[in-house]
Amino acid sequence: MRRTWVSCLVVASLLLGGGISLAQGPTPIAVVSISGYDELRGDLEMIGKLGGTPELAKMVEGFITLGTGGRGLAGLDKAKPLGAVVYVDGEDFPVIGFVPVTNLKSLLGALAGLVGEAKAAGDGVYEIAAGETPLYVKEKGGWAFIAQEKELLDKAPADPMKLLAGLEKTYDLAVRISVKDIPEHVRTMAAGLLQMGAQGALEQQPGETDEQHQLRVKLAQRSLDQAVKEINDLDTVIVGLNIDQKTKTAYVDLQITAKEGTETAKEAALAAKMESDLLGFVLPDAALTVRATGPITESDRDSTKELLQQAKQSLLDQLEDQNLTDEQIKKAKGLLDELFALLEESMEAKKMDLGASIVLKADALSLVMGASVPDGAKIEAWVKKLVKAVQEEEPDVEKYVKLNAETYEGVNLHTASVLLPTDTPKAEKLQKMVGPEMDIVLGTAPKAIYLAAGRDAEKLLKKAISDSKQKAGTQVIPLDASFSLGSLGKIFQFLMDVAEDQGPQKRMVLQMLTKMLAKSGGKDHITIRASAIPNGTQVRIEFQEGILSVLGNLPQMWMMMGGPGLGPPAPRLELEF
User: Fold this and answer.
1) Phi/psi of residue 426, each to 5°?
2) 278 exposed, middle or buried (CB, 10 Å; 0-12, 13-18, 19+)?
3) Averaged over 115-121, what is the pLDDT?
4) Which of 468, 452, 450 is nearest to 460 (CA)?
5) The pTM is what?
6) Which of 20, 104, 282, 395 has minimal CB crowding within 10 Å?
7) Cα–Cα distance between 532 and 541 in angstroms, integer?
8) Residue 544 and residue 548: Cα distance in Å, rounded?
9) What are the pLDDT digits (tens) for 209-238?
């Protein structure tokens, strides 16, 4: 019978503990779920094959077999999940771990070399001297329950599967926290700890003016108050990791739900019916895409305005160190005042809508983005005032900047060209990707602004504007972002070409990563999506198989970096129990 790395998880579960006593009628506040032996072993085998290390599971299996003296996981029920449940008792948080077993004595005997020898403690309970605090284990209904106090075992759940409530089917590893069931005094204590932890950071820093310090303290206090409010509004938090062997992908979920009727729940509901007018700015072949659409709440508005005040004050203070004349400082302050007034005005809108893409190819680097604004005409007027001020200082700027160069589908286009240096290897390579000049195009519309830069900037911007108009009003999820690591391989190659100080081992690893990602057939994306769910939000980060192949190759890369090799797997002892 084959033995695998899941025994490490069994050991971890055996080492779970906490608390001293458990009140009558306990309410679980957290549940940890780990999928079964067979599922985990399959995940490991798939990752190893994707990474060109098909023996990865056997290599780890060899260590487990060696650690258990050739007995493997005798007595473990490999078809069921394992995990733990956390209760609350005053200020203590007792933990009861559970492991599916077919024969507890066999499993404890196999793990004796790792967790210590189990001794009978009466009533079917075994005591394990694991570290300074002993653990107590008892089998009941096909489950081995583990706790730090023998009495806790009498409180073990009759059926742990009911506590898991399907987590083991959705995720390989998951934690569900019932925030609403955490006693109020514990939440109050947590809020106090947040306040205490922030005190040191809120002290006035060297070189910080009184005004800067007051702004920073005000912003931090608002953030703390908001965090405390949201903690009190929360119902449940779930964090889960799953590796899907069928699709050869992996994802991490974060689900946050608030108690029905709370302000946090109402704000989450607003994000469920958002429409975007900027889908044309999400390019299908881009290395990086971001589309964010959502309501601007009162709390968002207030906190962002205070952030803007802090940023503005910092910029104003820096002007004094630029060796500018009084007249130049006066003009700069005037422009900054107008800019931040526009930014604050943008926060009065009911929603935020943003779309952006970065195109990265062997001979092309481009950026295109669009954002909704309350009044595009005001932003255009500010840009013209900025250009005029710069021209007064540098008349040659007029040669490279053209205001109102064209009107395209109701959008005023303003263009600029920036000459790139060619006196360094990095500058030369950048010039090959964007051209001898960096083309920049700014578009202003009544309710939006657009920007493009790099190779074919104007062409990309016009297409994005046209496509957005055709798809205007499409209902979307709050956030959809994607990043291609295959395109990142081009950056790796660029770094290898210009970084002469890279050692041969690092260069070898970079080359391996580049080749691996190039073979992924485009299945090398990391995506981040935020979706509205009843009374809350789910954020999912998904990794395609090209990313998993990198994980499967970590042992080889580790050895190339000089780490100790895993060595050949220990002989597998085909023992049946």
Assistant:
1) -65, -45
2) buried
3) 87
4) 452
5) 0.82
6) 395
7) 15
8) 7
9) 777 777 777 777 777 877 788 888 999 999
